[in-house]
Design a protein that fits this description.
The chain has 351 residues and is an alpha/beta fold. The chain has helices at 3-18, 37-42, 51-56, 61-64, 66-75, 97-106, 126-131, 149-152, 155-158, 176-187, 197-211, 222-228, 232-254, 319-326, 331-334; strands at residues 26-32, 77-79, 88-89, 140-144, 161-164, 215-220, 263-268, 295-298, 306-307, 314-315. It has an eight-stranded mixed β-sheet with strand order 5-4-6-1-7-8-2-9. A two-stranded parallel sheet has the order 3-10.
Length: 351
């Protein structure tokens, strides 16, 4: 072998040896609809609470979202505190749900998507893209409180288990616990197309225990529903419950050999909201500030950089490629329109 090639081989070996090992084998993506970055980073807004509400609503961000701040932010990374030089935002320009979920799951904004109508998504999401690969066949699942989630991921075409809204989970085995969840969900009508978050969460949790998917998507919705209703106390309680769900889900998977030390958790929202004291109940194209979101990451491949400050902006369109890259898959290369992975989440890809 020529000396020049020997030198190049030596450099390559040194570079490869310097790269951290890739550990993530499973990814859990959780979204909670319309939870503002303001509450995530600042806690409850006293200007939006009556005296009675202040008695029941937590104030500090650590009290409102203890798992997010005591575990994820300390052992992982969180983006979106605009007061600390960390912008996270959607790129679709519409700042409402279907466009935001599509952008998150496909990696790009689609100008054709301009309503929240329950229309099957013509775009292939990263979930479907992964499911087409042999390593993920039968190992992808999506759950949502909002009934439109099944259409957004286009489960009928994608072929993986999808359950949202008031639909019962019928994937076998339908255990006694799942049958009870199905029944209670159907008997507890709240909003036209969305039951309480508890049904989506506990159904997804049972599915994880039974089937051990490698990729799990869970979408929760009460934070948005109570915000639109102008009920700040219930909005805060829903956010706090989402945090409890994240803890329970994380602790559950860490108790299972397949997931322990080999799973990354990604959390974010689909859009932001307007400013207090009036516009916080709304969002959309006419409220440009509602494009700002937050996102958080926890897993064996994500360095513990905590709350990110004074960093380059990140976008919702980067989530799909980041999710795939955590699994060692090049979604951005296969889908040029998609945003690129967030490099700081992937130390094994850094130069």
């Amino acid at each position: 072998m020529r000396p020049r090639y020997i030198a190049l081989l030596a450099v390559f070996c040194l570079y490869a040896a310097a790269q951290p090992p890739h550990k993530t084998e499973n990814v859990i993506l959780v979204m909670t609809d319309g939870l503002r970055w303001q509450e995530v980073f600042k806690g409850a807004d006293a200007t939006l609470m009556t005296d009675k509400q202040q008695e029941v609503a937590p104030g500090r961000r650590e009290a409102l979202l203890p798992f997010l701040w005591q575990e994820i932010a300390k052992k992982g990374q969180i983006y979106g505190n605009r007061t600390a030089g960390s912008d996270a935002y959607v790129t679709n320009g519409l700042n409402f749900s279907y466009p935001g979920y599509n952008e998150t799951l496909t990696g790009f904004a689609d100008p054709r998507i301009r309503t929240n109508d329950k229309i099957p998504n013509s775009n292939v999401t990263v979930l479907e893209w992964l499911h087409k690969k042999a390593a993920y066949r039968g190992k992808v699942a999506a759950f949502g409180a909002w009934g439109v989630i099944s259409a957004i991921v286009n489960g009928a075409r994608a072929g993986f288990v999808t359950n949202s809204g008031y639909d019962p989970l019928t994937a076998p085995p339908v255990t006694d616990r799942i049958a009870l969840l199905n029944r209670l969900k159907g008997e507890t009508a709240v909003w036209d197309d969305e039951p309480y978050d508890s049904f989506a969460f506990h159904t997804a949790l049972e599915y994880v225990k039974l089937h051990r998917p490698r990729v799990l998507y869970l979408s929760l919705g009460e934070t948005d529903e109570w915000a639109h209703a102008g009920n700040y106390a219930l909005y805060l309680r829903s956010a706090h419950r989402v945090d409890q769900y994240l803890r329970e889900l994380w602790e559950t998977v860490q108790s299972i050999d397949q997931y322990r030390g080999k799973t990354t958790l990604i959390c974010l929202t689909d859009h932001g909201r307007g400013e207090a004291p009036l516009e916080w109940t709304s969002h959309g194209e006419k409220l440009p500030e509602s494009k700002f979101i937050w996102m958080a990451f926890l897993g064996p491949d994500t360095r513990a950089l905590g709350e990110r400050t004074n960093v380059a902006p990140v976008t919702q369109s980067q989530i799909a490629a980041t999710l795939a890259a955590l699994l060692g898959e090049d979604y951005a290369g296969a889908v040029p329109r998609a945003g690129k992975p967030i490099e700081d989440i992937l130390p094994f890809t850094r130069n």
